[in-house]
Amino acid sequence: MRRVVITGVGAISALGRNAKEFWSALAQGRSGIGPIETVDMSKLRFQYGAEVRGYKPCEYFPEKQIDFIDRFAQFGLIAAREAIRDSGIEFDRAGRHAGAIITGSCVGGQCTQDDGFVELYQKGRPRVNPLTIARTMGNAAASHIAMEFGLTGPAYNISTACSSSNHAIGQALWAVRSGASQFAITGGCEAVFSMGFLKAWEAMRVVSPDTCRPFSKDRNGMILGEGGAMLVLEPLDAALARGAQIYAEIAGFGMSADAGHITQPSAEGAALAMRSALQDARIGFDRIGYINAHGTATQVNDPTETAAIRAVFGPHADRLAVSSTKSMHGHALGAAGALEALATAFALRNGILPPTAGFRQPDPDCDLDVIPNESRPVKVEFALSNSFAFGGLNAVLALRRFD
Amino acid sequence: MSDQLTQRVLSVIAATQRLPPEKVKIDSSFEELGIDSMDGINILFALENEFDITIPDEQAKQIRSIREMVDGIQKLVAEAAAGKAQGQ
Fold first, then answer.
1. pTM strictly above 0.80
2. What CA–CA distances, in Å, run from A271 to A58, A283, A364?
3. Residue A204: which of B41, B56, B61 has the nearest Cβ?
4. Rounded distance between C-alpha atoms, residue A167 and residue A334, angstroms
5. In this predicted model, what pLDDT tens digit does every residue of A17-31 receive, in sequence order?
6. Staple partner for A191: which of A11, A72, A134, A292, CB 3.0–4.6 Å?
7. Which among A220, A213, A215 is positioned nearest to A362, based on CA atoms?
8. Is residue A258 a contact partner of residue A265, using CB atoms and an 8 Å limit?
9. How far is residue A398's CA from residue A289's CA, in Å, rounded to a whole number?
10. Burial A244-260 (b: 16+ CB within 10 A, else e)
11. What H or E segment, with its residue span, contains residue A202?
């Protein structure tokens, strides 16, 4: 069985325009959450989000190309460009067909769809932009990545709400590990800020009126985020043979379904996914030093996740460090898993665990070491990154430091 | 009349939960009516539409019983009416 490593990374998020800025903010415990600027927020009850501030598509794409790509896929393509350049991977003729592109996005080009609805239902116009479907479809990022780099191997998008990009990275791991693919470009992207979509979140009453305080007793909801993160995965042997830099190893992937409630999470389902990831990585729970939590700061996720962690790790849970980086980059839905896998890979490589920002009061129902507010210099060998989505679909990655 | 308001609240709850109206009384508990937290959110949405009011998240979080729902709606409806009167 081939070991699989990350040889290139790319990210665009509320924390910056590239992976370096992303990590720098995390290490400093600096949040990218602020007043939402791209939507008229006067009719919405919440006001804050984690946007890619001041983003201008023309800085990344020629005008004509912008017409064809929704914001969400733009983020995916930008992150993929950075990751591919960063990895130094080159695609020869045979190589172009040998890799997979597997992305995660749960609502795809919903901003474009929302614009179309404004045209039809508000302005009463008889038509929408003919590129609406091409922009809205959830696979758009995977397609554009394939097109830009001439990659003709398997390419697809996975849509599993907040677990989308963990599911995508997990499938990419297995494709490379099995030898089905010689490399993978994988991660996720999401653009959430449109009036209609924000109204849908407002109706669920789970969005914070100020900020995201995972695990804090006074937490009051999640903060939505946007962006994209992509990883280049290769077999360890191939990476070493070409002298590639290696960020971390992806050691395992586990999944489960709660089979419970369509919105309420289950500790049993989450525990099952974590155990599956450990099994796939062939390690005992006592090897884990850090968990990048799903940690949305909703009333219900944080204690459920805590209970699941305690169920899996027993007394070892008290020796774990657990943080939610959603406290800084927001909840980017389909892109969340990818941003968080990247955060975890950097944490392992740099020997610095990112904090849970905005933490104020310990909650006895979330009684883990949540690395409050300040990052911590600790060398950890194995880490987990959790995604527990609406609909009870859980996906967990296990990562290993590479020395 | 607050009796009429109470009846309207109870019938919205019955309709949203697809229950026979006689089953939903002001002292029925969420548990006995099979109302979970997502059902609660749906009921509040239906009540906001029925009475043309907005129920703030802070208030929504405190609601633990049907009686509290009725009381809360009563206050919001009164506030909305007072607001309209002031506007005249």
1. yes
2. 44, 15, 20
3. B41
4. 10
5. 999 999 999 999 999
6. A72
7. A215
8. yes
9. 11
10. bebbbbbbbbbbbebee
11. helix A195-204
Residue type, A110: Q
Q: Decide: residue A364, CB within 10 A, 0-12 exposed, 13-18 middle, 19+ buried.
A: exposed
Q: What is the residue type of A117?
A: F
Contact A154, A181 (CB under 8 A): yes
Active site residue B36: yes
The CA distance from A333 to A55, in Å, is 19
> Cα(A318)–Cα(A298) distance, rounded to whole angstroms?
22
Identify the active-site residue in A106, A162, A189, A366: A162
Cα A282 to Cα A268: distance, rounded to the nearest angstrom? 21
Where helices occur in A242-356 by DSSP H, the ranges are 267-281, 301-313, 326-329, 336-350
Helix (H, G, I), strand (E, B) or coil at A102: strand
Residues A181-213 pLDDT 10s: 999 999 999 999 999 999 999 999 999 999 999
- Longest CA–CA span in chain A (Å) reads 63
**A95 CB-contact burial (10 Å; exposed 0-12 / middle 13-18 / buried 19+):** middle
Burial (CB count within 10 angstroms: exposed 0-12, middle 13-18, buried 19+), residue A237: exposed
Which residue's entry shows tokens 């790790």? A313
Nearest by Cα to A198 from A387, A376, A45, A86? A45
**Inter-chain contact A264–B57, Cβ cutoff 8 Å?**
no
Strands (E), A130-182: 155-158
A220 to chain B, closest Cα gap in Å:
9
- Check if A203 contacts B (Cβ < 8 Å): yes
How are beta strands A183-190 and A393-400 bridged, if at all? unpaired
What is the ipTM, given to two decimal places? Answer: 0.86
Which chain B positions have a beta carbon within 8 Å of A204's beta carbon? 41
Instruction: Please report which confidence band the pLDDT of residue A93 belongs to, taking 50, 70 and 90 as the band edges.
Output: confident
Query: Which spans in A2-139 are helix H?
Result: 19-28, 63-68, 71-87, 110-117, 132-136
Rounded to whole angstroms, the Cα distance separating A332 from A118 reads: 24
Which candidate from A205, A262, A263 shows the least CB-CB separation from B57?
A: A205
H helix or E strand, kind and range, residue B60: helix B57-62
Predicted local confidence at residue B88, as pLDDT = 56
Residue A221 burial (CB count, 10 A): 22
